[in-house]
Amino acid sequence: MLTKDQEYYFQMINPDHTCKAYLIRPINSSSIALIDPQLEHLQDYIDIIEQNKYTLKYIFDTHTHADHISAAAALKEKYKEVEPDLVMSKYSQVRCVSLKVQDEMEINFEGIPIKILETPGHTLDSISLIILGKFFTGDSLFLGEAGAGRDDLPGGSPEQHWISLEKIKRLPDNLIVYPAHEYRGRQPTTLGEQKQTNPYLKFTNQEAYVEYLSDLVLGPADWMKDVLKANYQCTQDPKSAWVPLDSPACESLGTLDPSLEKYSVKAISPLVFSQILKDNKDYILLDVRSEKELSGKLGTIPEANHIPLSSIMNDISQLLKWRDKKIITICGSGKRAEIAARILKKLGFQNLLFVEGGIKKWKGIKLNNLRAI
Length: 373
Ligand SMILES: [Fe+2]
Known about the structure:
The structure is a single chain. Mean pLDDT is 88; it is low at 369-373. By secondary structure, the chain is an alpha/beta fold. It folds into 2 domains: 2-232, Metallo-beta-lactamase, Chain A (4-Layer Sandwich), CATH 3.60.15; 258-372, Rhodanese-like domain (Oxidized Rhodanese, domain 1), CATH 3.40.250. The chain is elongated and about 80 Å long. The protein has 10 helices and 17 strands. Helix 3 packs across helix 5 (206-214) and helix 7 (270-279) packs across helix 10 (358-372). Residues 63, 65-67, 122, 139, 149, 250 line the site of fe (ii) ion (FE2).
């Protein structure tokens, strides 16, 4: 549905789809801009343009997408006689970008100001757009409990994302937030409401935010790397990369199998874990942190085997030899250890435990015990 919004017409295309695309048209003009169009819906955009005799002037990609192929290259080719611009961040490596933009830049779209905000974090080339009262956030901010896009894809950085979120927090409350994804049917609301309800806007310091996200690092699935490559190369072939149907892939935990929810695993406290380490030799300890973290401040656990959570499904043969053992999973704060244990349970493993609070809590207890001695 096309709605008149003070100074421009606005349309959310395919509103039921989890990937969002938007259309903007200045009043009294036939020129349009598309935001985040997807190749799988190319024909829908063509139909809208042809039926209404629109002229495609701008295509905005808020970032290089890893979960779907952009329609930008195909639209540029289809409407080459009117030379629509593909607008992306100055950091974009997408080959067919024709207008690179930077922070605070403003594009005058026939009297409609389109203000660019650099909001890196989900990717280095993430931008958000403010178009009068509307705030197109890409994957830099989602709605409500969905938080924001994941930061563990190539070029992602939780540190930068924190800075972007702080920048977003300073914007006026009355902007209406339109993200690039909505996986659970939430409707756009004001930024003011997001400041109240969105957990990612509630962290009060960068360290806490980065620490929270460090427990959600899964790394890109192989299909996402293929999609990124296809988008860098401006493919027009929808078959150039396989994309799973309706996967909430841009969420922090999006590549996880949602059916894991039903596989519950028993947690043990760090104190019980210490006891097991001391008394019981009949277990396999599985540290599922990333490779990088092993040389970080939490260090390693000498008794532990190491398989990062993101590789667990690729290491089945290694895991199978432990099928009849008691397996204890551990990570930094406990979240990934629980997910890993659920994955193992789904694979048929029975004797599973995970350390609640992870190495951080366990080391705290060790320190306290030492102080008591
Ligand atoms: Fe994304």
